[in-house]
Here is the input.
Amino acid sequence: MRGFFWMSLVAVLVGAGCGEKTNKTADAMGVPTREDGVLRVVHSSKPIAGLPRGLDYDKREMELLRNFSEDHGLKLKWIKVSPDRLVDELVAGRGDVAIGCQLKTIDAAMPLLFTRTVFNPLKPDSAAIDGLADDASGIVWALPETSGDLLNKLNTFLVKEHPSVAPKSRTGDLAKIKERGYIRVLTRNNPACYFIHRGVLMGFEYELIKQYADQQGLDVVMVVPPRWADLKQWMVEGKGDVVAACITISAAREKSKKLQFCHPYGSFQEIVVTRQSDTRLKSIADLSGRTVHVRKLSNYWATMENLKKESGIDFTLKAVPGTMETREILHRVESGEFDLTVADSGFLDIEINAGRKLRSALMFRTSHRYGWVVRKSNPELKASIDRFLEKKVGTSNYSYLYGKYFNQGASPKKFKDEVRSM
Here is the structure.
């Protein structure tokens, strides 16, 4: 499995266009290049000054690009230059991407785009984890300003796949976390949990866990596994310290032998969602003959399964891939690809505020709450988080933060373009 660790406050600049000459095969894969089927990679002839030695960052970057090229049917052409010529080669049109770049060494006026942080060597013992620093010392890849399409493909690759960075198994309690100086947060990439807007890390869960980490003197490393189901497995395996991903507290989940919920927060109801133009669904009986699309391991599935059993109404419950976010499912309901789905009221509000033509058809009366998840073998961490949330929930700061993402129409709407590109 390809692992993925990163966190960065480096700005992601988005351009337009797709280069001067494109290859039909590469174009079909959605990756424009300036030479037929070849991605020209500019790299330094010398190690990057000021970075820890012996960690072979250049080799790791090359391995990443090899995986990217394999995914998109491209050949790689390596162009070795002196460190001070990396971006000059791009500007002169002799390369498609330059690796091993640091923003602090690049003139801001240069006509370039930059990927998300690829590596950020904050400490020797955490060199395999990206983006622990909030400065511009991390390693990024640079592209000509006309390469917006290629930039998006590279960023998508870096977000979802990071093959040369393997998650390390650590299960120590709060004292051990403080020794290493950072807390690993397992989460999801969506408008409610965690996303990037103009280079700034955002999301309700991110901002809340960041406040906790600041109180503890810790940096935050956001970890996004490939599938929702991986959150539990990665937690058990020690690939994260806490799950903060709008996880619904349920009786079934509280039976876990290895994991436990912290102090609850948030309040929402589950809603059956349909297209704005669909007015047929006015009561539970109207579910007959309809199809509800949800992830099988989600609480939504359990809710609808119980409803079907108790009501006897003949509707179809169809599982969607475990990698699919609720927002993606909602978008497919809007387009007509999916019939119905179920979503938390807050998640639905975000999408409606963003202009999506969806509507609440049926609302379940039972209210639910969210909870962060930790291992039962970490009582110190749980007690610390419980104290934080007990004091935080209900304060004006918490209400502002919650409203910022779930209740205020303007905020989600202005973020929607960036979130869609993740």
